[in-house]
Amino acid sequence: MTETRPNSATSPLSEHEPESAFFTTEDYQRFHERAARYDRDNAFFADDFAELEKIGYLRAALPVEHGGRGLSLAELAREQRRLAYWAPATALAVNMHLYWTGPATVLTRTGEVDLGWLLQAVAGGAVLAAGHGERGNDLGIDDSITRAVPQPDGSYLVTGRKTFTSLSPVWTKLGLHARDDSDPERPRIVHGFVDRESAGVSVEKTWDALGVRATSSEDTVLENVVLPAGQVVGVGGIGAPYPPYVAGILQWYLPLVANVYFGIARRALDLAIQTSRTRPSIALPGQTHAHKPAVQRQVAQAEILLDASWSLLEKAAGDVAAGVDHGAWATPRLFAAKEFTVTTARTVVDLAVQVVGAGAVSRSNELERLYRDVRTGSLHPPNTDAVLDIVGRIALGLLP
């Protein structure tokens, strides 16, 4: 399969961003050239992952003393949208490792929570993944179908099935949540990490999805798996405020995942712009489709949407990195940024397809893959319904 691509991003929004702290143009080109094959074969991005490990990208947010670069959320978000521009599934999957590392660094540095053991594990090569998805659970991390049975030594035995476990071929520690019903009147949600080599852990191959196929987000089955006491990172009552680390991962996850979808949309529009500049127009002899008023309007609409999304993402990530206190609106603002961005990204990709025309849906055109990849954005928790419910109730004063 061959895919056309522009020589570089044309957006003025990307021209003024700092260069990547990790990747060269040649690196991006390698990732990009593999993306079509991974998608076609429904294969894990193994070569990309090996390179990311080698250059230390999985430690990007770790402090220097742990072998990292100490990147802030804003800096890492820019890296993620650049990577997603060239290899969306690669960026999305590694995102599910990175968002655990950033808040662990921040909370350990401030002394609010000591997650030094987790930073040391990542520095030593641990790969983290998210075990939050569950079939039939429409409350996300606010409740769980997976069960955690407390043990005398402070550990838990965890039983359940987790869906959409990105990085399935390579993760070594699975961050998850499970419900402790040992006190029926006060059920609790337990958050922590289980180890892949623990007895009772198995991976069931279920992943054959519409888009972002290279993430290899298989199901993880847990049967009385030990969650060690030392790897419990938070316990809270149902309906109570999230433990600090759980709140922290939300603050990093939401902007990071949104930036992945921004990168997809930026890439799609750049492809459409290049195509319109080179595609002859019979209706306008001697000119290209770029000279057609309809195309100009579509491109203008897409650029305005991306500009707004870019500004929102920069502000949201920058505020978290700077510690700006938005009070009760802190997390809802991030929900809103994610929702606006993924919805915008889908609209922009649709506009890009309209600009290019029927050729955009050919498997030989990169836009066909981007059209599929962008579809999953609104499905990442919290999904559209959950975001609108939370933001609406807070705005109406129906939530504390």
Brief rundown of the structure:
By secondary structure, the protein is of the alpha+beta class. It folds into 3 domains: 112 residues, Acyl-CoA dehydrogenase/oxidase, N-terminal domain (Butyryl-Coa Dehydrogenase, subunit A, domain 1, Orthogonal Bundle), CATH 1.10.540; 110 residues, Beta Barrel (Butyryl-CoA Dehydrogenase, subunit A, domain 2); 152 residues, Butyryl-CoA Dehydrogenase, subunit A, domain 3, CATH 1.20.140.10.
General description of the model:
- By secondary structure, the protein is an alpha+beta fold.
- The protein folds into three domains: 12-123, Acyl-CoA dehydrogenase/oxidase, N-terminal domain (Butyryl-Coa Dehydrogenase, subunit A, domain 1), CATH 1.10.540; 128-237, Butyryl-CoA Dehydrogenase, subunit A, domain 2 (Beta Barrel); 244-395, Butyryl-CoA Dehydrogenase, subunit A, domain 3 (Up-down Bundle), CATH 1.20.140.10.
- It is built from eleven helices and eight strands.
- It has helices at residues 12-15, 25-41, 46-55, 73-86, 88-110, 116-123, 244-278, 293-322, 330-356, 366-373, 384-395; strands spanning 128-131, 147-150, 156-165, 173-180, 188-195, 201-204, 218-227, 232-237.
- The strands form two sheets. A four-stranded mixed β-sheet has the order 1-4-5-8, with helices on one face. Strands 2-3-7-6 form a four-stranded antiparallel β-sheet, with no helix packed on it.
- Helix 5 packs antiparallel against helix 7 (244-278).
- The N and C termini lie far apart (53 Å).
- The relative contact order is 0.12.
